Amino acid sequence: MTVFLYILAIILAWMIGSVGFSFVNTMAYRFPRQKKILKEHFCCDLCETQIKAYEAVPVFSYLFLKGRCRYCGEPLVKRDFVNEIIGGFAGLLIFFRFGDISDISSSFILSSPIDIVVHFNLWKLITLLILLLMYCVLDLVILVDHDTMEIPNRFVIVMLYIAVAAMVFVPGVSLVSHIIGAVCISVPMFLITLAIPGAFGGGDIKLVAAVGLMLGWKLTLIGFLIGLLLGGIYGIIQLITKKKGKKEHFPFGPFLCIGFMTAVICGMDIINAYIKLAAFIHG
Predict the structure, then answer these.
(1) Could you state, in order of their start, the residue ranges of all structural domains in the chain?
(2) How far is Cα 143 from Cα 118, in angstroms, rounded to an integer?
(3) Torsions phi, psi of 106, nearest 5?
(4) CB 183 within 8 A of CB 234
(5) Which long-range contacts (C-beta less than 8 Å, at least 24 apart) are formed by 106-115?
(6) Which of 216, 207, 206, 222 is nearest to 259 (CA)?
(7) DSSP character for 51?
(8) Tens-of-pLDDT digits for all 283 residues of the chain?
(9) Whole-angstrom Cα distance, residue 206 to residue 167?
(10) Proportion of the chain in helix, strand, coil states, percent, rounded to 5
(11) Under a CB-based contact definition with an 8 Å cutoff, are residues 87 and 20 in contact?
(12) Which of 61, 149, 203, 265 could serve as 57's disulfide partner, Cβ 3.0–4.6 Å?
């Protein structure tokens, strides 16, 4: 019975993550085009033919259809397929990372599947769903900001709702840390933007404030630094390859989101490693 629950839990974690990111694909396509998110049927983006339910199964439908629309024969969007796979792995990672130890300020530990199944309860399910929702919103920001260089306020508002839910259901961060997290990075970003117009986008600043409210100041700081590092590397590569000029902008939101996703999983381990390294250097 335990083995059956173990296998079922893995399948469900994969499916929930994959379905969540698949829905994000739909939102990322429809939102910039001002299409209704829920009230329109799924259809091919190219020929706009309404597709059947079994043709919209994340990952498997793409493989079954061999990456092409069965109606017009044109290639399906490969990014959506890759994003669904990432969503499945994200669901598994969140499940194994927080299924038994839901404290987001804990060190990185992949829990045993048997421990997760045995100790599972409604409270932990809510925690996992909140974290997965956070990942879905961050994934949506990545896709939309990449396509439009804009982070809509609606996404930030949804993240604020998730942050409030996390303050209630996700343990490991004190109320003071939540509040400091909302301002410790966003306020300096705002002041820098006042001094240097265009340094950061307004959507980036609001997103950092919302995520900071959820994660607390430690994970927010780590996530921002990771995003800043990744964005800097990307910018240097763009300059070297001459794909971007010195005065051209690129979306910073995707790098912030990747940084925050990483911080949720292993942010405290990065902090502890830095502390140990600093202590070693200073003898």
Answers:
(1) 150-283
(2) 37
(3) -85, 165
(4) no
(5) 106/172, 106/268, 107/268, 107/269, 107/272, 108/265, 108/266, 108/268, 108/269, 113/6, 113/9, 113/10, 114/2, 114/6
(6) 222
(7) P
(8) 567 777 888 899 999 999 999 999 989 988 887 777 665 667 776 677 777 777 778 888 888 888 887 778 778 889 999 999 999 999 999 999 998 887 888 888 888 777 777 777 888 889 999 999 999 999 999 999 999 999 999 999 999 999 999 999 998 899 999 999 999 999 999 999 999 888 899 999 999 999 999 999 999 999 999 999 999 999 888 888 877 666 677 899 999 999 999 999 999 999 989 888 888 887 6
(9) 18
(10) 70, 0, 30
(11) yes
(12) 61
* 3-class secondary-structure state, position 43: strand
- Residue with token string 């799924």: 42
Give 75's strand partners: 68
DSSP label of 251: -
The label of the residue with tokens 């400091």 reads 180
- The whole-angstrom separation of Cα 134 and Cα 223 is 14
Cβ neighbours of residue 9 under 8 Å, at least 6 residues apart?
Answer: 95, 99, 113, 116, 117, 120
Q: Crossing angle, helix 2-30 and helix 78-98, to 10 degrees?
A: 140
| DSSP-derived 3-state class of residue 68 | strand
Q: Torsions phi, psi of 237, nearest 5?
A: -60, -40
Give the CA distances from residue 175 to residues 9, 66, 221, 250, 252, in Å, rounded to whole numbers and listed in that order. Answer: 32, 50, 16, 34, 28
pTM: 0.92
| d(C-alpha 187, C-alpha 133), whole Å | 25
